[in-house]
Write a structure and sequence with these properties.
alpha/beta, globular, seven-stranded mixed β-sheet, 9 helices, 345 residues
């Protein structure tokens, strides 16, 4: 048996901000079976995750620059994290009907070979499956590992989160409040700032687009300085934060979305503060912490079921909406975790 398979095709390498015209749609056919004796798994994709790192993969490969993941191939479907159901399996660890999250193509059906640290069987199905693109998947692990493993938080510390209403930031803020920290976030609209204060429980929040002086905004929110900064944006924001960090402060560098679309990235000028204030800055890649997924789930699942964690998704319906939703990330259009729904079964 065969089925039609709509796919999002990457046309060519991107410079500057990506556009919807950088992608094409095709409809191909897929065999609803896997070759006998193979380790392959045929999955039906249910939810696709839009994530900022995907912009890095749209650029032309540069051997001199370290990359999180391999660049997309022009003329081929893009791929990323998704939630899928197994249709047919030749892999000993997966059977028909199983659910998984991990790397799949931006298409209705994908044939994958499950790999360690790239694909994970979903054991807990009494929560929304879409959460495995966010709260229970890569972004959730990013927030958990960056905050607890890298920042080593203590009760009563001051915590600043940039891009705070996004997939990762909204969780970091809530984790920090659970620790008894004072938490401030920044975002790019009044709607997002209100969300931080009313829904996610941040102590304060500000719209960075309305601030003439970012350092002054941080000084206003943190009169006693910042102990922990969860870095999502880079550039001018990082520069301002360095002026307001406390001695022995910690900065977990998760992303720098403000820089991804610039041909010449902004410089950071206040680096001497790292020395004088003994600031520890650590970049990290979430896959380095995937061995802690069982510990993470043990921590976070009861919090979800008891209503102690709030998670907001921005849902785009249909694979045809995928490019628009992905590109919207870089213009701040999403409110919460951006998810593309292919099928809700």
């Amino acid at each position: 048996m065969t089925a039609t398979n709509k796919q999002v095709i990457f046309k060519d390498y991107v410079s500057g901000f990506p556009k919807e015209s950088d992608f094409d749609f095709t409809t191909s056919t897929v065999e609803l079976s896997v070759p006998k004796g193979s380790n392959s798994v045929l999955v039906k994709n249910l939810y696709l995750s839009c994530d900022p790192y995907m912009r890095i993969r749209m650029g032309k490969p540069d051997p001199s620059t370290a990359a999180l993941a391999q660049a997309y191939t022009p003329g081929q479907p893009i791929n990323g994290y998704g939630v899928s159901r197994v249709i047919e399996s030749g892999h000993p660890d997966y059977k028909k009907g199983d659910l998984l999250w991990g790397f799949v193509g931006w298409e209705e059906y994908s044939v994958i070979t499950p790999m360690n640290r790239m694909h994970f069987k979903i054991q807990h199905t009494d929560v929304p499956l879409s959460y495995y693109t966010g709260l229970l998947g890569m972004p959730g692990m990013t927030a958990y590992a960056g905050f607890y493993e890298i920042c080593s938080p203590k009760e009563g510390e001051t915590v600043y989160v940039s891009a705070a209403s996004g997939a990762v930031g909204q969780l970091v803020g809530q984790f920090a409040k659970m620790m008894g920290c004072y938490v401030v976030g920044s975002a790019g609209s009044k709607e997002k700032v209100d969300l931080l204060k009313t829904k996610f429980g941040f102590d304060d929040a500000f719209n960075y687009k309305e601030e003439q002086d970012l350092s002054a905004a941080l000084k206003r929110c943190f009169p006693k300085g910042i102990d922990i900064y969860f870095e999502n944006v880079g550039g001018k924001m990082l520069d301002a934060v360095l002026l307001n960090m406390n001695p022995h402060g910690r900065i977990a560098v998760c992303g720098m979305i403000s820089q991804y679309n610039l041909e010449n990235q902004e410089g950071v000028h206040n680096l001497s503060n790292i020395i004088y204030k003994r600031i520890r800055i650590q970049g990290f890649v979430v896959s380095d912490f995937y061995d802690k997924i069982p510990k993470f789930l043990e921590f976070v699942l009861p919090q979800i079921k008891e209503g102690k964690i709030t998670y907001v998704e921005d849902v785009a319906e249909g694979i045809e909406k995928g490019p628009e939703a992905l590109i919207g990330l870089f213009h701040g259009k999403n409110v919460g975790k951006q998810v593309v729904v292919i099928a809700r079964e």
